[in-house]
Sequence to fold (672 residues):
Amino acid sequence: MNRYVKCLASLVATCITGLAMAQVPPPMQPASTTPAAVPASASAAVDSTANASGQLHALTGADLSNFFDGLVPFALRRGDVAGGVISVVKDGKVLFAKGYGYNNLKQRTVPSPADTLFRIGSTSKLFTWTAAMQLVQAGKLNLDSDVNDYLDFKIPPFQGKPITLRNLLTQSPGFEDTARNLISTDGKPVDLERYLKSHLPARIYPPGDVVAYSNYGCGLAGYIVQRVSGQSFDDYVEQHLFKPLDMQHSTFRQPLPAQFEPLMAASYDKASDGKLQPFEIVDPAPAGAMSSTALDMAHFMIAQLQGGSYDGNSILSPATTALMHTPQRTDAPGMNGYALGFYQENSHGQTIIGHAGDTDYFHTDLHLMLDADVGVFMSFNSAGNEGGAEVIRAGIFNAFLDRYFPVATPQLPTAATAKADAARVAGWYLSSRRNDSALRMLYALTQTQVSALPDGTIQTAAFMNPSGAPMHWREVGPLKYQQVDGPYHLDFVAAANGDIRYWVTDSLPPVMVFQTVTGLHTLGSIELLGTLSLLLLLATLLSWLCGWLVRRHYGRGLALNPKQRRFRLWSRLGVLALFVTLLGWLILMVSMASDQSLLLQGGATPWLYLLYALGVLALLGVVLIVHHTVRSWMTPRRGRWVLVGETLLALAAIYLAWLILALRMISFNVHY
Fold:
């Protein structure tokens, strides 16, 4: 759930450093199954057991025990993760379930798959979607009706199109991303209705047009379940899902009910620091508040794989279950897309659906292999070192697939158009999952660049192999790319006129696309022109100060009349306002990188208002700078280099004024 926000914040400081030094920073890497750029030692811990020989291992409890026992403890140590649990089901039975490491470092207790609770983050959404499908099956909800039909408040249409339940289940309602008040640690209960009515995000896409993952959208689905069923969301899930599935150690309730508190796994940032972290309150709860055990989650996987039934109790009919697993949308033909609630993870020749989940400290994956009738669940109670938990869970599942479902990756010939198309697709791209209202500047710094290489391959710094080197991609079909020496694919989608619209890849969950950015909005332009402009502002301020000190030392004044001095002073104050405003934004983004509460708990709000006010002063300052430059040109006997300097300063100020407006740095909007 919070993985995207966390990755975004962690890269802000790097992006800002790149801006200051006019270098290209590594853009956001919002992956759950992506081989991320992490310490090679952590990756090696999970890659070393992959079956390179292609020999098929028997998927038995004994072999799974040998496999995980040889893999997970070492991976936890190298990833600096305290502990975790894993369960595997096959053919309607629990094949394997075990805890590793520690659920409490101080007590040195090993997590139990039966009764140690883990926070499962956005994997909770699968229960919200299942609850909604129960009501669809009962005829109380329609997948293609306007959701306003089920609400007691209105969501305005966007470009004439209303949001449907199908849009919510396929993460395409068109909402911008928001993180404010998503996670808190104050221990206070949450109110779903109040949250939804006070946190309605802006719409940036027509419903159904663009996939853009939305926690708010899932919260909305949970509220619809609550209103249509006549029960609170917690009561409904407990009665209609947990009870028939015999999930006795599962709950959405926050704070934890008293009987579950002793069973909750402790959470940590890193195992090495041993600092116990507080219980996280997630809002909206249907999007990521659930706590559960590995065996309870095994029951849910069995039901999903067995036509909606577990141990004779049905939560969905076989037809509805099959519908829930049926692909609904993809953003490029042949690439992974969305079913109803589940996203596709097809790999190794297998039809796979699933969902990841993250809070700040817990990290979870659930995978259902529909053809093989196999389900895999895992959850870990620490973030780890440089994304350690991210690497571990991705590596474990990839190693699992390599061992039990090995398949040779077909190496298609390189297309004859490789060099021409590499030049065509090269450029800057921005994730469709973003916030435009208040954080457009921050997201602009997370653009990812696709670069064309001399041999006709392409690369983007967002995607790293397990050794930390950028992945290379070669064209194997029209605008279709395959990872060099790897299994992943990357496809570009063009408009009717041939212009590239966006690209998608199966090395990421299909929760977003990367859309083309052009002109002055590209990060390359912002880095170059922004850096030069900031340097000009800084040089002006330093020369202003140094000139004053020199004149004071020698007891001399400016050779300007009082009116000229006044306009020059106003111009320099305008430079100061502009510089302070931009510096303030950079400081805020660095602070967000080091303190996520600024995003998640709303701590950035007063600072945003202050920066918006400074932005207005900065724009007034630009007017003063330009006015002074014009007057300088109209003043006789001004030196040539003085005029050149004032002109360059005015041009820099005009560009920065455009940047402030283009990146909404005076929007006075705090919806983030």
